[in-house]
Amino acid sequence: MARRKKIYEGKAKILYEGPEPGTLVQYFKDDGNAAAPNQRDVVEGRGVLNNRLSEFFMTGLNAIGVPTHFIRRINMREQLIRAVEIIPLKVVVRNFAAGALSERLGIPVGMALPRPVVEFYFKDEKLGDPLVTEEHIIAFGWAGQQDLDDMVALALRVNDFMSGVMMGVGIRLADFSIEVGRIWEGDYQRLIVADEISADSCRLWDMRAPGATEDEPVELGGPPEAYAELAQRLGVLPVNVTHSGKPTLIN
Description:
alpha+beta, Phosphorylase Kinase, domain 1
């Protein structure tokens, strides 16, 4: 097994140096984002399924001209990606009222929004990833106005693709989040979709579930059921979900 140097480890993924300059290897763990700090949210097989799902969505986006960091899947838990400079913002697109939006504005859960709403959240776990405005983003130098315009355009293109794919398998995409990274091609900067797109980053409502209606949405199960159900409907569920060992690290 190849020896790789660990670059970064988060709750759900590990990044290792890639085989070529400008590349990284992204390893998907079974850990997720627990509700409380210092808690572990481990779902058996989550990493395998999220790797496959992220590959499916990123490949589809690349195919329609939406740039992503994804290059290829290496094995059941790893994929080769482009190294990017991550913008410290979580970009959330909302199609239906749910979660924090319903709580903040008192909008009934399940109500279709007049148009997709794009929100920005500052990525800081200690602060709880707070909602921020474009004024905050520009004032603190996290991104410029052109970056923000490009991020909104990118997020809406992802939304069009994701909504259509989900609708085709009987799932309503209520909302989702992406991360965006900068890459440099000479003196030219480009923004691309980074991190992952998986069941962990989407709020999904099952329109085939018993009792599901336009006004009474039903969540697409809970982990691990939601991960397996989504992968099965999209046709990306591996025949044998197994764990591959972690690469040997160089300190």
